[in-house]
Structure formats: C-alpha cells, structure tokens
Amino acid sequence: MSDADDIKSDLTQAKNALLEAIQRGFSFEDWINGPVGKYLVLRAEAERLDRLEQLATIDAHDAKAIAKVQQRIAVLDSWQEWVADAITEGRQAQHEFVDLGG
Asked: Whole-model pTM?
C-alpha cells in the first residue's frame, strides 16, 4: 500500500470511530431524556438527598458508617457522570467529524 492509501485508511478509521461516538452520544441522550432515563435520574437524585440527610445524623466517630454512605453517594453520582460523558464525547465527535470534512 502507498502512503496515500495509508493516510486514506487512517482517515476512514478515524471517521468511523467518530461516527460510533456520535451514535453512542445520540443513544445516551435519547435514553436519558426518555421515560426510563428520567425515572432513574429522579430516583438517583432522591436517594442522594436521603443519603446526604443520613450523613447529618451519623455519629461523627463512626467512620465505617460515614464511608458506606459516601460510597453509595459516589455510585449514584458515577452513573450519571458516565451518561453525561458519553453525551459530551458524542458532541465533541460531531465537531471533530465536521473538521475532518465528514
């Protein structure tokens, strides 16, 4: 293969990866704005508030109980961050795709 063919192949692979990221971002955005996504966001936010209130009543010297509540809050935050990251990556991929002449 020539250098031109290599460059064309690399560009095609890059565009395909961007298209996958774009599609994934659209899928996550549709899902989070749909009934299941909205339900889960509301549930996570309600539980997060409950856990924060629980922190206010835990014995300040009970490190295990505090760590357990903090860990649950981190889990509740993490999945929402993953969804937001996928949407953001999709949007960034759209810009990159356009910049590549897609």
From this structure: 0.77
